[in-house]
Each structure stands twice: as structure tokens, then as C-alpha cells.
Design brief:
The protein is of the alpha/beta class. The protein is built from 29 helices and 14 strands. The protein is elongated. Strands 7-6-5-8-9-11-10-13 form an eight-stranded mixed β-sheet, sandwiched between helices.
Length: 822
Amino acid sequence: MNKKLFALLFFFSGLCGLMYQILWTRMFSFVLGNTYLSISTIVASFMFGLFFGAWLIGKVIAKIKNPLRWYAYLEGLIGCYAIILLISFSGVDVWFEHLYKWLSPLGPIHGLSRFLSTLLLILVPTSAMGATLPLAVQYFTRGKKIFGDNISLFYAVNTIGGAMGALWAGFYLIEHLGIRHSVIFTAAINLLIGIVVLITSHNETSPIKDVEPALKKAKKTKITPAFQEWKSLYLLAAGLAGFAALSYEIIWTRALKFLIHNSTYSFSVMLFVFLLGIGIGSHIARKLLAHKERDLHYLYGVLQVGLAIYAIFTIYLMYSFAYSDFFQLTFVDIIYDFSYSWVWGIVIYTLICCIMFLLPTILMGILFPVINELYFEHVEKRAGTTVSTIYAINTIGSILGSVVAGFFLLPVLGIKTSLLLISSINLFLGIIFIVKASHRLQPTMVTGGLLLVVVFSLSLNGKYLYGRKESKLERVLFYKEGLMATVKVFQQNDFLSMSIDGNKIASTERTLFRKEKLIAHLPFFVKPDIKNVLVVGLASGISTGCVALHQEVEAIDCVELIKPVFPAATLFRDFNYNIFANPKVNLIYDDIYGFLKYRDKKYDLIVSDGKLGPLYSGNTIMLAYDYYQLCKNRMQPNGVFIQWLPIITPFKELDVVLQTLKASFNYVLLFYFYPTDIFMLASDNPMILDKKVIEQVFQNRLVAQDLAPFGVKSFREIFGSFVGSYELPNGEAKRINTFDKPITEFEYMREWKKGKLWPGGYRALNVQYLLENYVKMDLESIFKLTKNIDKDSLQELVKGSRLFFKGCINFFKTGNFQESFR
């Protein structure tokens, strides 16, 4: 078979492999939850399959007469299995639900059962993926001289294919096809690759006759202590290199959230640059290995030392250089500058990732073919067996790296110390190989030592990572780089604020403070006798504390995914009414998706206050039809659901969210509190604005005192913020955000900067949209939503509130307050 044609097919094979990893991670997160443990379970299972496939094929590869035919069968197997798994996934959902019911009280045993189940479910296709590289190298290696060329070429094209797969899935496939159809599309590519290879490799056998003399000689090689020492060293290097590479990926990804945030686009770009660097490095290795006179031990050692030096240098880049005026003005400001389109934001994401880790990933890409060449030359002599052995050991190291970095290094040691520790592994390997080479030892050590001193000195600068609106002048009261995210509590002027990965999520400053209180109190004005409440997200605990002020409430479950938030929230005890000492409040560390899916408890009220915005991939979970259905299933028949949206939400996404919510619940009421907050209340039973009930709520002295500073004191203010019930246009939801096809996850960022196209931006456009919805309702329809108020008084209130909303629109457009509200 033509080598160039196969390289092209192997590129698409790598593209499919990465897309499967992304797609299956999403699919399994719907049954395992969205915790770091759940995601790690999926990724570790995927990588274990790669290891198992590489190891298993190494046992039989020498006996395979036609490696390409095997390769074709494996590609077909991957495609067929992917479709079978997709079709049967509803059964997978049921199985994990049973595991939760049977084993959840057993903790670690439940976690192990989830891992083993996931592993078994994807072991067949991932093992097939792991076997493809050894088979490719085995077939095309006709002699010792071209082994290095083959391993470099195929590793490069496969990895670059993976990089393109990350972009393809993250920028197009999932948004336009959805997850299920994306799996089918990817499987079709695998099947096509298998068919093409099968046709072109018909009746071919592996052209490895030139290697036979070497194989016979290898069989006669006496296993001496020196031979065993080299073998152990190469395997150790392969394993530790994999460990370090995955550790770096996890740590750098976490740190870069402060600069390029956590959108699907930013994650796709990070993964793309990481894999692209490895692919470029492998291509460079192809050139380096062509010079057989080169001392590969020395080269490997120098590359490892170089990788260690740059890894330490990234500490300076992330903790100091990233906050310099030059970096902020040249890069970060463009992300938020509305005169630049979202495409420029993607370009900046890419440039930042390239600055941070393109060079070290290029070094990683060179190291893998070099260690394969060393093992082939000094130990194994069999091309396919060499690749399967090194690849398997490297993958095992990668699995351990992802687990250790995520579950121990980051939460225990933090980003800085973790990078220093991981870089010491590269430094250790580099020194060993340089010493073994005995080549230019002194100048290399002196140069490397000086560079290490310089970068280590630079790495000492900077103590914290900062978000866009955070300042080094703030007084940091709490800072923890945890398992899922970095949580910070800081004092700015007279206000106390909490941020997650640099994004402020709670504050005693008026805007956020009011939102946290209103989302807690508003449901009690439309539904009396709320006894059991679920609060989604703890943050500062202010919302949970406000819910507890209502005397009729008997129990509050507050679910929080990010563990450091719990101790951070204790700093807000003066503002959250010390919920930690309140017997009504039950704080739960869990993923809300898994909590809703597998718990049986029913609630009268669900307060959903998750992170929302253009730079959060979490938009999919919290604004999806599937999430609303889970909430609905955990609500009493007359239960109420409330969710907040900022008024600056892109207009198209506001429309999608409202359609999605209305498709989930029979009744949706909308409130707008000037200037920033939209609240959506939903239920399957009618919600009534009963004047008597509202007045009774205000008779609670603590509630009245809580809302008084924001001018919310009576029925008039509550009804004055009411903008009607929401009905679907033509009675049909045309655009629904779902887990399978997450519209908002992709559109939100693209639409984010388009607000400047309209006078007054999205604030004016969204209030206009809400007002138009309200105006569609006649007085009789509005009267049916109220109680204990006469029509004349109601008409006066409706007229006044509509005039106020018109004034808001004019003010957002003109900026002239007096003229707008005259």
C-alpha cells in the first residue's frame, strides 16, 4: 500500500480517536455526572483501553502476516462498536442507576464499580485504537534504517489528526449534528478507512524480510546486566515522560482558565495546541532521526532538561508575565474589546496557548520517537513490538499522571509546586541520559544549571492567579487551588467577593448582593407553604441563608460541586446568616446532575443559581431541557423552579432559554428587576400573584429587612417587576437547548459581542423583548394571574410598569436618565 495514502488515512484515524474521546466523555458524563472524578473515570478508561490494545498487539504482532488487514479490521470494529454502544446507551443509563442504588453507600466500591463498568463498555474500541500505531509501523518498516522515520511520521500524522479532531468536534460537529449524530458520523469515517485499507492491502503481506537477520541476531543476544539496565532505563523514561506530559496538560489547562476561561472553544483550542505541538515535534524527530551519527542518548537528555526548564518558566508566564501591561493590552483586552469579533478571541486564545506550552509540547513530540528509536536499536529489534511496548508504558504513565495531578498535586500542592515537582521528573531523566552519553557533559550541565537558576528565580514572583476584574491590590482572604477549580475570597474596597477561576460569582457589592437575595425570596411571593427547598450552588451562601429566613421552610439541601467553596463561604457568615450553624441547612458536596438523577427526594422549590455567561461551558448543563426535566422530576406536583439570567444575555440565547424552559414546564412567569436581573419562575401548575400572600411574606420582619435596602418593600415593587407569563410563539418550541445538541454552549460566545450592533445593546434589546411579551397579554389574562386586587388598581399598576420598562429601554439607548423616565 502506498505510504502517503496510508498516512492520510492514519491522520483521519487520529481525528476519529480524539472525537470519540470528546463525544464519549460527554455521553458518559450524562450518566456518571460532571465531577472531576467522573470525567477522570471516563478518560482513564479510554486511556487504559489504549494501553491494553498496544500491549496485547505486541504479544502477537510478530506472527501477523498481513498487519494492514488487521488494521482494516480494527478500524471497522471501532466504527461498528461505536454505533452499537450508541444504540444501547439507554441500557447503560439504567445500569449506572442500579449501581447507584446498590453501591452508593459503599463509597470507594461504588467508584470502582463505575470505573470498571465504563472501562468494560469502551474497552473494545479503545483497545483497537491502541493497536493501530504498532501495526502501521510494523507493516511499513522494511529495515532498521527507516524505523525512526516511520514511528515519527505515523505518530505525527495521527497526533495532528487528533488536534484537528479537537477543533472539528469543538467548533462544528457537536453544535450542528449533536452528540448522537456526531458519533454516527465519526463511526462512518472509521468504516470508510477500514474499507479503503482492506481493498488496497488485499493479498499483501508485511514487507519485513530485511529485518529477519536482525531478528535472528536479536534472539541470540545475551541478556547481560548492561542490556537489562538499558531496557529498564528506556521503559522508565517512557513511563515517566507520559506521566509528566498528562500532568502538565491538566495543570496548564487549569491555570489558563484565568486567562481564556472555560468555554468549549477555549478548551478545544488548548487541546488543539497541545496535540499540535506534539505532532510538530514528532515531525521534527523524523528529521533528527535521519542522521544516524547523532548521539540519541545525549539528544534525549538535552530535550528532557529543556522541557523541565520551560515548564518552570511557565510559572513565571502564568503568575507574572500574564498580568503585565504589555500582555494585558496586547492579548487579554482584545478578548473583551467589543470592537473585535469573537474570531479574534479565538485567535488570542490560540496565541496565549502557543506562548504557554507550544514549545514544551514540541519537545514532548520529539521525545516519543527518540525513545522508540533507542529501544528498537538497543533492545527489541522488532518494529511493531517496540512501538507496542513503549506506547503501552507511556500510556500507563499518562493514566497515572492524570490521576496523581488531578487528585493529589493540584488540590494538595497547588499549581506552582506541582509544576516544580513534575519538572523535576524531566530534569531527573535528562541528567541520567546526559551522564550516560558522556558527551559534552560539563558545558551542558553548566548551561542547563544557569538557565534553571534564572527560570526558578522568575518563578518565585507572583503568589496568586487573577481574573479579568481582579487586582493585585485586593486583600486576599482565602485562596485554594482545588480539584475542580480555584476559589478565591477577597476584599475590594468595603465589599467582600468570591471568584472561581477568576470569575466573580458572589459579592456583597449591590448588584450581585441583590441578585442573591431576590432569587431566594421571589418564589415565596408566588407559592405559599414552601417546606423543602433545593438550592443549586452554594457560592457565598447568601441565597441559602435568605431562603432559611422564611419560617415555613423546614429543610434546605444545598448542593455544591466545588469543594473549596465550602470553607470559602464561611467568610460570608455575617451575610449568609451563618448557614453553617442553621439546623435547617444541609450542605452537600455533589454534582447537581448526578444528585437530581439518582436521588428520590422531592422539593417544593428548586433555586438554580449556577454560573452563567459567555465564557462558561457549563451553560449547557444549567440551561438545557434535560436539566429542567431532572429538576421537574424532583419537584412536588405544585413545586416551583426559579433561575436567574443577566440582562446582558445575548438576545438569541435568551429566546432559546425561554423556549427550552417553556417546553419543560406548563407555566413560566418572568420578572425584570432594573437594571441587571431577569428571573424565570416555572411550574407545572398555575402560579398566582396573590396580594395577600405577598403582604404576608413582607410581614416577616427578617425578610422585609433583607429586601428593604433594594427598594423592594411591598406588592407594588413585586408586581412592578413582573413582565408577564411566557408563551411559545405559535405554541411550538423551535429551538431547544439539550445535552445532545447544546445550542447555547456554542452560540453564547459568538453572539456575546454582537450586542453593540443594536442601540443600547442587549440590555435594551432584551427589555424590549420582555416588554413585547408583556404587551401581548390583555388585562383579563393578567388579572387571572393575580388575586385579592381589583381590576382598576391592577390596570394602574400594569400601565405604570409598562411605562417604566419603556423608560429603561430609552435609558439604555440614550444614557439620559431624566429624559427616559420623564
